[in-house]
Each structure stands twice: as C-alpha cells, then as structure tokens.
C-alpha cells in the first residue's frame, strides 16, 4: 500500500521549472531509489514531500488521504524524516545532543517543567540507538564536528531513522563515505525497511541503487519518466531512462 | 569493530580530539592566567592587594559589567553581537530615575522601598523593550546584529539624553544608595555583588542545563540544522536579545544605585568590555561554543589587571594594552581550534 504519493507536482523557482508535473509513489516496507540526472528535480521533489518547500500545484497523498505539508515539523509529526545532503547537524554539539535536537528529554517533575535537560537519559538512549543501528563512535561526549565525515553522516542518518515511523528520505546518504561506512549505512537502510518503514534513497551511484533498492523511479526534466523493479532492471535501463533514451510513461 | 575500520577511522579521529581538548583548555588556560595575575600582584604587594577592601571594591566594580556580560554570553553563543548594552543600561537608568522622581513628586531622595522597587521594574521594562526591538530586527527582519545594535546603541543613548536635556540626574533615593549601592550583607559581602552572583548563577543554569540553553548552542552552531529540527530559531533569537536587554536594564539600576547618578558618559565602552570579557572567556565569536564560567573569568582579568597596576603604580593604560593582547590571543586560539576540527 502506498504510504506517500505525489501527483503532478509543479514547482517553480522564479523562471526555472524544477518540477513539471512529477509523480512519485513509495510503499511501506520498501526501498525506492529516486534517480535522475543533475537538475532532474530530485531534490526539489524531496523538499516538497518533506515539507521544506510547498509545491505550486499538484497533490500529495499520505496513506491515501490528501495532505498539505506546511513545514518539516508537520512532516515529522506524520513520521516523515529526512537525511539532508548537506548534513544538517550542529557541529559543536555532541552526538547525543544532535540525536535529540528539538526533541530534548527533560527531567521529571518540577525541574523538567523549568526546562532542565535529562542529559544522562539522552546519552543512555543515544548509546542504545547507535548500537542498535550499528553506528560505532569512539566517544559520545565530543562535538560531532570533531568526528570523521563518515561518523557524522552515520549520526545524521541515525537521527532521522530513530524518529521516523513511516518514511525516511535520504539525499545522497553515502556520498562522503568510505567503503566500510557506506556498507554500514546501506545495512541501516535495509534494517529500517525490514521494520516496515518506507525508505526513499536519492543516489547517483547506480550499483548502489541496484544493490539496495526494491524499486527505482526515474525523474527527467521535472517529470517521472520510468519505474523499474530493481531485480529486473539493468544499469543500461537506468542510464537510458535518465538520459531520455528510454521513456516508459507518456509525456503530457 | 573490525581492524579495517580502525584503520579507516584511526587517523581521522586523533587530531579532532586534540582540537576538542583545546576547546576545554580555553577556559582552563584563561582561568590559570587569572590565578597567575592574582598571585603575581599578591606577591608584589601583599599588604595592598590581598586586603578585604581591595577584594570588595574589585568585586563591586565588576558587578555591573558581569551582569551585562552574562547576557552577552548568550548573544555571542548564537553567533550574534550586542553593541547596545551600554546605551540600554544608561537609558534604563535614566527612565528609572525619571520614574522615581515622578512618583515622588519631585526629588526622590527621601523615597521609600515602594518607589525603589517601582524604579527597578521600570528599569527592567525599559531594557527589555530595547531587547525586544533588537531581537525583532535581527531575528525577524534579518538585519545583521552588528548593524541593528550599532543603531540602537546610538538611539538608546540619544533617547536617554533627550529625557533630561543631556544632563545627569543625581537625586536618587538615599535608601537605594546605602542598601543596594554600597551596603553589605553577612558583614563583608557587598549587596551589589550578591545581585550579580545570583544573576550569573541563574544565567549559568539556564545556559548549561536547560532546553533553552541547548537551543542557544544549536542556533549558534548551525541555525539551519536547528530550524530543520523544529526549533523556532526566530523566536529563540528574539528571546535571547530580549534577555540581554532585560539584564542591561537590571545593570542600569545597579549602576544607578552604585554611582548615585545616571552616568550618561560613563558607559560608552561597556559594550566592548563585555564582548572582550565573553570572548576572552572562551566563547566563540563564530557561535556554538561558550561558558558562563569563562565569562566570569574574562570579566575579572581586566579588572584584576587594572587594580593590580594601580597598586604597583604602573599607569593603567598598560592594562588596556594587555587586555587587547589577551583578547586577540583568545580569538586566535579559537580559530586554530576550528581549523584543526574542520581539516
């Protein structure tokens, strides 16, 4: 069953048409790769579906019902989380603080009402979540900016996955990673899918797409031009659809 | 962890950890500098420097600046700056003095506690109003803090001068002067210092243990990440400038009680002194890093230098040079820390 769908989304930035009637579907318990050449509209589509931008026209359906995503907060309330390409973490805060950013755990009783943080509880839960997701950090009490790029990315991925209940968008989650860290992130993606969540993966890495995705949707010039089952698709199919040599869906 | 991954991470993690230690060391080293200064002056002039009177006056003279600097710490941690605190202090003092005169129907010299408390509330409200204005212009209208507070620096001073045709008010409730201004509690502790300590402790609590403080660091560290995490960045920034304005209002009342005058011309470098204290204390001008403890140390280094130079008969112009050098060194350390981390 589709958990999130987009119908004919249009989005302009000034005179630039980033989306020209884009469709998109993602089902619960699957990994969908969203691919396309630079400027195909992938990032804009994800922004529209995660509440960062509002489409100029078109419809977004969540579990079958039309919705408006006014803000990322509105999307998050529905269980939709996003891992941003530019690593939106606070580099001066430690991994636990980043994991709980905007969702801080307070102490119980009066002290909590006064706004006091329960740092120990957050650190404990963060350690448990990182362990569950296979994120290894040598230290949990150092600023995240002092970690390696891979570890920073792992924390960013973990932060979204921990809080998501329905859909996780990942914009190039493995772009900055080494081989081992990349495998770790792909493992996390599979684990999240097996828990019944929908994962939308944006990637330029075609072998990676074919390795981890269940389905592939291809955008070109702001429209969806093809859909594949990953098991049946070849590298040539994907590249053909991205470049326009192959089109499945009729243009409107 | 596999051996392979240790190789992958091993090299990358060592240096940043060193950088992280430097961060902690910033406050540590500056604290050592303060202790060293006290020891040096204490050894040079033990009979003059290490006296109750010297310590009392040192604490009293720093009390007003400390209150301003606590607010400034929050502002600088968000990556902002507030140049207007000195002018807001004067404005708040002036409005407060005017208000106390008004309710006393003329000179407020013999006014009682009711009038004094009213004056305090007026001072806080006046400071808060400038803080809100700063906050809205910076956070909502997105005008750079340097420009906004440079503007309100002039505006608040001008408004304060207009209220009494450019001259100071020197008739203030004598009760206020003798109790808050230079009274002591527990035999030795100046009341002004107690006020400053209490406000500093509340500031430290707010910054280091609460959600408000955590969000302050987050906004300064990466405002976009904070926004995406659902933190109301505009609202948070506005409340921080408001808080700083309110503290400047309190400081204005303290200054009134201590000097017994609205001291229009005496606070023109308070803003720079507060910024210097905060930055010397290890708070990063780039945002995201800082402690109230560091600020306390940063307030006392110039004060101890000045007092010490006076006692050993060195012209206190040297103090300005020394503080300038320490300030530049502190920022240089901060930049080194960032560079080693972002490598």
Overview of the molecule:
The complex is a heterodimer of chains A (252) and B (343). With 252 residues, chain A is an alpha/beta fold. Chain A folds into 2 domains: 1-79 and 166-174 and 194-252, P-loop containing nucleotide triphosphate hydrolases (Rossmann fold, 3-Layer(aba) Sandwich), CATH 3.40.50; 88-163, no CATH class. Chain A is built from 9 helices and 10 strands. Chain A has a 6-stranded mixed beta sheet, with helices on both faces. In chain A, strands 2-1-4-5 form a 4-stranded antiparallel beta sheet, covered by helices on one side. In chain A, α6 (149-163) runs parallel beside α7 (179-194). Chain A is globular, with a radius of gyration of 19 Å. The two termini of chain A are 26 Å apart. With 343 residues, chain B is mainly alpha-helical. Chain B has one domain (30-333): Orthogonal Bundle (ABC transporter involved in vitamin B12 uptake, BtuC), CATH 1.10.3470. Chain B is 78% helix and 1% strand. Chain B has 14 helices and 2 strands; from the N terminus they run αααααααββααααααα. Chain B has helices at 3-44, 46-49, 52-77, 85-104, 113-140, 145-163, 174-181, 191-209, 211-221, 223-228, 233-259, 270-280, 292-311, 317-342, and strands at 184-185, 189-190. In chain B, a hairpin with a 3-residue loop joins β1 (184-185) and β2 (189-190). The longest helix of chain B is centred in the N-terminal third of the chain and has 42 residues, at 3-44. Chain B starts with a helix and ends with a helix. Chain A binds chain B through residues 52, 72-73, 76, 82, 84, 88-93, 97, 101-104, 106, 114-117, 119, 136, 138-139, 142-143, 145-151, 178, 180-181, and chain B through 1-2, 4-5, 8-9, 12-13, 16-17, 19-20, 23, 209-212, 214, 217-218, 220-222, 224-226, 228-231, 287-289, 341-342.
Largest sheet of chain A, in brief, is: 6 strands, mixed
How many DSSP E strands of chain A? 10
Average pLDDT metric of chain A: 88
Q: According to CATH, what is the class of the largest domain in chain A? A: Alpha Beta
Gap from first CA to last CA of chain A: 26 Å
CATH class of chain B: Mainly Alpha
Rough shape of chain B? globular
The CATH homologous superfamily of the largest domain in chain A corresponds to P-loop containing nucleotide triphosphate hydrolases
Instruction: Tell me about the largest β-sheet of chain B.
Output: 2 strands, antiparallel
Percent range of helical residues of chain B: over 70%
What is the third-level CATH name, the topology of the largest domain in chain A?
Rossmann fold
Tally of structural domains of chain B: 1
User: Approximately how much beta-strand content do the residues of chain A carry?
Assistant: 25-35%
Biggest contact: A-B, 38 and 35 residues
Domain unit count of chain A? 2
Percent helix of chain A: 25-40%
Radius of gyration of chain B: 22 Å
| Architecture (CATH level 2) name of the largest domain in chain A | 3-Layer(aba) Sandwich
Computed over alpha carbons, the radius of gyration of chain A is 19 Å
Q: Enumerate the strands of the largest sheet of chain A in spatial order, edge to edge or round the barrel.
A: 6-7-8-3-9-10
Alpha carbon gap, first and last residue of chain B: 25 Å
InterPro entries (chain B): ABC_transp_permease (IPR001851)
Pfam families (chain B): BPD_transp_2 (PF02653)
Transmembrane segments (chain B): 22-44, 64-91, 111-133, 145-164, 185-207, 240-260, 272-305, 317-333
Subcellular location (chain B): Cell membrane
């Amino acid at each position: 069953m589709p958990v999130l769908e987009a119908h004919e989304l249009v989005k302009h930035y000034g005179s630039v048409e980033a989306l020209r009637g884009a469709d998109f579907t993602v089902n619960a318990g699957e990994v969908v790769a969203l691919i396309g050449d630079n400027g195909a509209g992938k990032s804009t589509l994800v922004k529209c579906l995660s509440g960062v931008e509002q489409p100029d026209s078109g419809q977004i359906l969540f579990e079958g019902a039309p919705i408006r995503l006014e803000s990322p907060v509105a999307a998050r309330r529905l269980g939709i989380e996003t891992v941003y390409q530019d690593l939106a973490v606070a580099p001066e805060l430690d991994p636990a603080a980043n994991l709980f950013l905007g969702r801080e755990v307070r102490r119980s009783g009066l002290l909590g009402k006064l706004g006091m943080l329960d740092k120990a509880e957050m650190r404990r839960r963060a350690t448990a979540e990182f362990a569950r997701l296979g994120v290894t950090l040598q230290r949990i009490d150092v600023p995240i900016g002092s970690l390696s790029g891979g570890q920073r990315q792992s924390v960013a991925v973990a932060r979204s996955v921990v809080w998501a209940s329905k859909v996780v968008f990942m914009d190039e989650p493995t772009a900055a990673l080494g081989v081992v860290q990349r495998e770790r992130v792909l493992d996390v993606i599979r684990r999240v899918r097996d828990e019944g969540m929908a994962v939308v993966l944006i990637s330029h890495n075609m072998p990676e797409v074919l390795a981890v995705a269940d389905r592939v949707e291809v955008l070109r010039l702001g429209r969806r031009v093809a859909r594949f089952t990953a098991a049946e698709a070849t590298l040539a199919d994907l590249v053909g659809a991205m470049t326009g040599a192959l089109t499945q869906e009729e243009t409107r | 962890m596999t051996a392979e991954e240790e190789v992958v991470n091993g090299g990358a993690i060592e240096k940043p950890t060193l950088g992280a230690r430097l961060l902690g060391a910033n406050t540590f080293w500056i604290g050592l500098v303060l202790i060293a200064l006290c020891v040096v002056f204490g050894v040079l002039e033990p009979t003059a420097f290490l006296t109750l009177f010297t310590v009392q006056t040192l604490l009293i003279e720093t009390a007003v600046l400390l209150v301003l600097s606590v607010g400034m710490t929050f502002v600088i941690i968000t990556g902002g700056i507030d140049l207007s605190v000195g002018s807001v202090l004067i404005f708040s003092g002036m409005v407060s003095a005017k208000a106390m005169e008004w309710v006393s129907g003329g000179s407020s010299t013999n006014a009682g506690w009711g009038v004094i408390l009213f004056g305090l509330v007026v001072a806080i409200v006046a400071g808060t109003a400038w803080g809100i204005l700063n906050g809205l212009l910076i956070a909502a209208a997105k005008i750079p803090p340097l420009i906004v507070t440079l503007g309100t620096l002039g505006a608040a001073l001008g408004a304060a001068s207009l209220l009494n045709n450019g001259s100071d008010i020197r008739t203030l409730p004598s009760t206020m002067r003798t109790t808050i201004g230079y009274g002591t509690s527990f035999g030795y502790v100046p009341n002004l210092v107690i006020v400053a300590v209490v406000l500093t402790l509340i500031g430290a609590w707010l910054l280091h243990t609460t959600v408000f403080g955590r969000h302050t660091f987050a906004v300064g560290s990466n405002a976009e990440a904070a926004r995406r995490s659902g933190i109301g960045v505009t609202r948070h920034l506005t409340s921080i400038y408001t808080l700083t304005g309110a503290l400047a209002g309190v400081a204005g009342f303290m200054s009134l009680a201590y000097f017994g005058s609205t001291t229009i011309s005496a606070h023109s470098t308070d803003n720079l002194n507060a910024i210097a204290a905060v930055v010397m204390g290890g708070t990063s001008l780039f945002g995201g890093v800082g402690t109230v403890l560091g600020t306390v140390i940063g307030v006392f280094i110039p004060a101890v230098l000045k007092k010490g130079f006076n006692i050993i008969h060195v012209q206190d112009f040297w103090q300005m040079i020394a503080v300038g050098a320490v300030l530049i060194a502190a920022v240089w350390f901060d930049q080194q820390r960032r560079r080693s981390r972002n490598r």
